[in-house]
Each structure stands twice: as C-alpha cells, then as structure tokens.
C-alpha cells in the first residue's frame, strides 16, 4: 500500500512551470494517515493512530492521495549545497525532506513538515537564489531571515515535538538537472530517505517530471515519496496570478495579496499565526515619551520583511526580548513605520536586541 499525507500548497510562484522542482509521493511501507483539518487542528505531541479499517480510500496515482477538507530572499549559504542553523551545519542525510521556496512559511508549508515528521526527521529543503537566476525583480521576503527559526520552532507541537530544520540549495546548481539527475542527487549526494510535496508539483529542468515519474524514480533509487493534497484557501478571495496552477490553494502569492490590502485577519489565517514585522534597531529614530504614551518611528529602510499596506493598525504588539507583548498601534506611511505604545512601564521595546519585532492581530487598515 502506498502512503500519503495531509495537504499542502503549491510553493513556487507563477514561474514554477519554468523550472519545477517539486516532489510528489507514495512509499510502500507506511499506512495511509488522515489528519484532522488544518483549520481546526490544535498542536499536539501525540497524533491519534488510525487503523487501516478506518482509513479513507485515496485516489490511486502511483500512491494514495488524501482529499483536503480545508488551510527575504533567503541568503545563499554556499555555492552549491549546504545550510546553517545557529552556525551549525545541517545534514539532511536519513531525513524526510519537503521541497520548495518556502517564502511565507504558511499553513500549506506547515502541512509538508507535519507529513515529513510522521515518517522521519523533518526538513525543509529550499531552493535559493531563484530570483537572481531567473531575472525576477527583487522583493522583500514575507518572513525575515532572522525570524525563520522562530517560526519553524513554533511548528514543533504539530510535528511530534520535532521542529523542522531548513536546508538550502542554490537554485543555479540544480536548475538544469533532469528529473533522474535530481532524484539521484537527493539519494546519492544528500542521502535523504524520503521526500514530501504537493500534488501538482513538477520537478527537473523546465518542469519535465510529473508526479508519476517522480514516484517511479524514487522507487528506483530507494526513496519514499509522499504526495499530499493542496491546502485550499477557505476564503477563496480572488487573487490576480499568472500561475496556471492557481486553483485557490493557500500560497505565498495569496499572503502577499492579503498584506497588500491590509487584511490582517486573512493574513493570519493563511500563515496560521500573526504576521511579524522585523525592523533593524539601529535605524530607529528614537523613543519619546509624552502624556504616558510612547512613540517610536523607523524609516522603511529598516524593514527586513514585507509590511502591510499603508494605514493605521490598532491591535498590534511589540515583542520584547523576554517574550513579553506590549500592546501598540502601528501607523505605516509612505516613508516610515510609527509605533505608539501605552503604559510600557519599565519595559523597553528594544533593550539589547538588534531587532524590533511587531506583530499584527486581526484588525486591518
């Protein structure tokens, strides 16, 4: 019987058809597992076991597919393959890897990590340097590079208390690989035990490989391959996209759209958490006190990730170094981000941190 997982979004944006590099699934030695819907699931360290008799029958496609019921450019670390976590080398040997760009680290990406954690040590294997290779216009990341580990750590309760690590490969080193060469690289060079990705994922140069070929190649090289259904955007808001595979699934494009219209409730639903804006502390223009109110301003050049559209956001929080939350209001104009705090007492919004972090709750502009 071939295995399957939960649900996932399509990771790479509209240019995905040019280079592919996704993986799909079906390993023979694991039973089908059906997870609760992403929208209602709570973190847990012990997933309920599901007997074969209670398992729903998937759609046969060289593997079983479980239907969905729901939801910075990363700096290149080395010239070809490698990654770093707290200055320690990360190895994916023996692990289960999910592939993608992982710009937003949204709920679809989290589903990939959840599935990987059910059969082994979970990793996100990211392709970096894609914009430079394909000539895309630079744009700010959704998640700041310095904040990625925190987000991945927050996934641990969903992933059997095992936070996924991130491993990065420069896109230029794999761009021209055929489907067979890419799977061979995963098996022989990286030593992975299995791969996880979405149902519509393509891989190999010019997206030459489809799910069927991927499963066949993985079986040939002794790798487990898991294909999972896309996490659908339950809001089904219209997003302008040239991506031919856009079917309403959760995607980084949709997160960017939600930020562009200042709909922070929508952003939170897509991400599975509040959006956190990171600013460099060294660029702050000073903290002034007046009538028990504190106001802090920073030019947009201090931003390390994508901000919501210009406007007033009433329900926000400044995150201190000791994980305390200071309620605040945020005003974003054409040049600056202004943060207004009440009753901060002895708490300092920056302290010894190199960054100032602001989270946006459900009230949009």
UniProtKB/TrEMBL annotation:
Key words, A-Z: ATP-binding, FAD, Flavoprotein, FMN, Nucleotide-binding, Nucleotidyltransferase, Transferase
Q: In which pathway is this protein known to take part? A: Cofactor biosynthesis; FAD biosynthesis; FAD from FMN: step 1/1
Query: Coiled-coil intervals in this record?
Result: none
Cite a single Pfam family from the UniProt record.
FAD_syn
Q: What GO cellular component term, any one, is given?
A: chloroplast
A single Gene Ontology MF term assigned here is: ATP binding
Q: What is its EC number?
A: 2.7.7.2
List, alphabetically, the InterPro entries matched: FAD_synthase, Rossmann-like_a/b/a_fold
Q: Mind listing the GO biological process terms from this record?
A: FAD biosynthetic process; riboflavin biosynthetic process
> Which top EC class is given?
transferase
Q: Could you tell me which residue ranges the FAD synthetase domain spans?
A: 174-242
Protein name as annotated:
FAD synthase
What's the name of its gene?
LOC111493664
């Amino acid at each position: 019987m071939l295995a399957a997982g939960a649900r996932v979004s399509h990771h790479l944006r509209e240019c995905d058809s040019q280079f592919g590099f996704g993986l799909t699934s079906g390993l023979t030695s694991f039973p089908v597992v059906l997870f609760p819907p992403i929208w209602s699931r709570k973190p847990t360290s012990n997933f309920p076991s599901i007997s074969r008799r209670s398992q729903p029958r998937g759609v046969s496609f060289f593997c079983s597919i479980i239907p969905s019921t729901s939801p910075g450019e990363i700096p290149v670390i080395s010239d070809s393959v490698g990654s770093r976590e707290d200055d320690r080398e990360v190895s994916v040997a023996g692990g289960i890897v999910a592939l993608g760009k992982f710009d937003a680290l949204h709920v679809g990406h989290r589903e990939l990590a959840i599935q990987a954690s059910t059969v082994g040590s979970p990793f996100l294997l990211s392709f970096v340097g894609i914009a430079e290779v394909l000539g895309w216009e630079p744009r700010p990341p959704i998640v700041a590079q310095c904040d990625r580990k925190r987000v991945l750590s927050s996934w641990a309760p969903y992933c059997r208390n095992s936070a996924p690590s991130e491993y990065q490969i420069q896109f230029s080193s794999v761009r021209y690989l055929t489907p067979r060469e890419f799977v061979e690289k995963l098996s022989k060079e990286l030593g992975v035990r299995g791969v996880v990705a979405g149902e519509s994922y393509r891989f190999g140069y010019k997206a030459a490989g489809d799910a069927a070929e991927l499963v066949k190649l993985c079986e040939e090289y002794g790798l487990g391959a898991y294909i999972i259904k896309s996490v659908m955007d339950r809001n089904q808001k219209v997003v302008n996209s040239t991506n031919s595979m856009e079917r309403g699934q959760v995607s980084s494009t949709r997160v960017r759209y939600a930020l562009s219209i200042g709909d922070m409730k929508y952003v939170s639903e897509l991400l599975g958490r509040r959006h956190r804006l990171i600013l460099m502390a060294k660029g702050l223009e000073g903290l002034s006190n007046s009538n028990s109110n504190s106001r802090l301003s920073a030019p947009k050049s201090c931003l390390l990730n994508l901000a919501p559209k210009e406007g007033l956001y009433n329900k926000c929080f400044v995150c201190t170094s000791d994980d305390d939350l200071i309620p605040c209001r945020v005003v974003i104009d054409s040049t600056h981000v202004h943060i207004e705090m009440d009753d901060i007492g002895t708490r300092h919004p920056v302290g010894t941190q190199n960054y100032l972090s602001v989270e946006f709750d459900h009230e949009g502009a």
